[in-house]
Write a structure and sequence with these properties.
single chain; about 150 residues; 4-stranded mixed beta sheet; 4 helices; 8 strands; about 40% helix
């Protein structure tokens, strides 16, 4: 097997027993890095310290991530102007926080025959919020609901 010292220097190809003796002499672990290569590559290192550093790096990378959640607003095809402006205020608040917004129109009863009314409501909703967002998914009919997804501008 190919052996790498703890400081990163290449020792060369040595038998497994010699590699294990070298690791125990330094009170370190013999870790196989690449088993598929020919010959297999092993490294002498403190495995506990390595795992601690790995967990620390993972936590640090998660700290810098921003999770984006999708908030949903439900409308009807016969929504009044007052209610629409109220929903728009909520959507603008969600978009300013950096969240995506799914706007859906639910059709009940015979309203399903007039899906164009729902599409008009969604288009009007986007026209009133287009300064803060972009359409990530155009209005699409799924069963009795028509929905679109708005994403905040960068």
């Amino acid at each position: 097997m190919r052996l790498i010292e703890s400081d990163g220097t290449m020792v060369g190809v040595v038998p497994l027993e010699d590699a294990q003796k070298a690791a125990t002499a330094k009170n370190l672990d013999l870790v196989m890095i690449s088993a598929n290569s020919s010959p297999p590559v092993c490294r002498i290192m403190d495995y506990g310290k390595f795992m601690f550093e790995q967990v620390k790096k993972d936590k640090e990378s998660k700290k810098n991530q921003k999770t984006v959640t999708i908030k949903e607003l439900k409308l009807t095809p016969t929504i009044d102007d007052y209610h629409l402006t109220f929903k728009i205020k909520n959507a603008l608040k969600f978009l300013q926080e950096g969240n995506k917004v799914r706007v859906s129109v639910k059709f009940t009863g015979r309203e399903i025959q007039y899906t164009s009314n729902g599409e008009k409501v969604l288009d009007r909703f986007y026209d009133l919020t287009k300064d803060l967002c972009t359409v990530e998914r155009r209005p699409k009919l799924e069963g009795r609901n028509m929905s679109m997804v708005l994403a905040p501008n960068k």
